Amino acid sequence: MNRFVVVSAAVFLLISVAYLPLLNELYWSTLTSLKPPVRVVADLLVTNGTIFTSEKSLPFADSMAIRNGRILKVGSFTTLKDFVGDGTVEVNLEGKVVVPGLIDSHVHLISGGLQMAQVGLRGVSQKEEFCKMVKDAVQNAKEGSWILGGGWNNDFWGGELPSASWIDEISPHNPVWLIRMDGHMALANSLTLKIAGVTSLTEDPVGGTIMRLPSGEPTGLLIDAAMELVTSFVKEVSVDERREALVRASKYALTRGVTTVVDLGRYYPGTTDELSWNDFEDVYLWADSTKKMMIRTCLFFPITTWSRLSDLKLQKGHVLSEWLYLGGVKAFIDGSLGSNSALFYEEYIDTPNNHGLEVMDPEILSNLTMAADKSGLQVAIHAIGDKANDMILDMYKSVAAANGERDRRFRIEHAQHLAPGSSDRFGRHHIVASVQPDHLLDDADTAPKKLGFDRAEKESYLFQSLLNGNALVAFGSDWPVADINPLHSIRTAVKRIPPKWDHAWIPSECISFTNALTAHTISAAQAAFLDDHLGSISPAKLADFVVLSTNSWDEFSKDGSASVLATYVGGKQVHP
């Protein structure tokens, strides 16, 4: 036994000596090949701020590190200083409040940009001022050219609806087409009606109304689908004009801290469904390829073109670039409250026997929704009246049951007036409520006149009720219907005090500041399947954020009273 051990030891010693040079070489080659880890250096280090992250795990931080347009890390300066290196730009916020880049969940971006260069009638409060603005536009235009504009609200001058007779004398040689602020009614002068062939003999189209005098002659006002009688004659704006409109609108949005929008396109009742596709191909793809995009944009398209979008998403995916995202499809079921075309169970008080309009056949809409959902697309449907909302809630429930479970995030755009119990259905069936707080400022005076006090109080803008039912609530402006101004929208949702009022309209529906800010950030991102990229200040997210004018979170969180000091997109300051 001892002899065996001695022999084995000798053999092992000889082998070790023989391979020692090889083992030594292997050791040193391995050692020299081990390099220290590469240190990550931030492009931008933002410090000394009050950063609201919109993340529950870390609601606040004082610093963040950014590299290649995305957030590396969020925390205290001591945990981030190792990211400082050659080329790192340090920005000391001096205590300023920072929020994630604000998301507007419902805009018509190019329409807004175009309207900025047209006759702007927003806020006009007198008939004389309305007419003067049209007259000035005619005097500055060539004879025969179209006078286009919009934004008027007849409630601002007492409720009287405008008519062609207001402007015929000042526009005898120029066709005029002025769209109401809600996009569901427009005024044409007599020359425009003549060009379009609209007379006393013209029948109301399905889903639309031609307003008439007792004699049967058109007044010049066309509602919803009836607008198509004129829009097909309006000269389409050029590609260059639409591109300029995108740039103009984007710059304006950035001044308000908006870094991302969900664009529902130039698709309204009475317009062709090709406009959204024309803008996608002529404007958005151009802007993306030429690096002219300034804000991130999620695009929705008319539901009638669902198969076209489905094919495109299969080919390109949801994310076209860090600027462009393919969203889903949009449809309408009713009109608007201001135009008396929103669909209600009970009649309008100011227009007896009128319950509103179905602007699309419900069976056709249901079939289109079924097909679009089956292909995997997100569906968003405009519904304002209580009956319209219930119809869409019922339809969504049926479609989901037929097509099976998945994360579909059906959306109802506006969800403005809800019958008792309907607010709970949003959360129960995982339906997004895409709402616009600033609309309530216009409707607080008019809704009781149209619906009656009790209906208006029980049904209107039920934000807190939706949240109580665990609905995902996303805020938007519907720009250019209302101004694109999230900080103002947040204040409205928190306080609900209309102009010239000294108290809240339906105070039980006021929501907390945090819920309102969340509705313009992470909830807005979730509502459009953008939450993997946007909506919060957290690692790997795109570095979009807004520096505000205040140093006090406590003061800001009372009602959002602050202004935009600077807007950053992808870690770069883009405003001012």
From TrEMBL:
Cross-referenced InterPro entries: Amidohydro_3, Metal-dep_hydrolase_composite, Metal_Hydrolase, YtcJ-like
Pfam families registered for this protein in UniProt: Amidohydro_3
A GO term for molecular function: hydrolase activity, acting on carbon-nitrogen (but not peptide) bonds
TM region positions: none
UniProt domain Amidohydrolase: residue ranges: 90-575
Protein name as it appears in the record: Amidohydrolase 3 domain-containing protein
Biological source species: Brassica carinata (Ethiopian mustard)
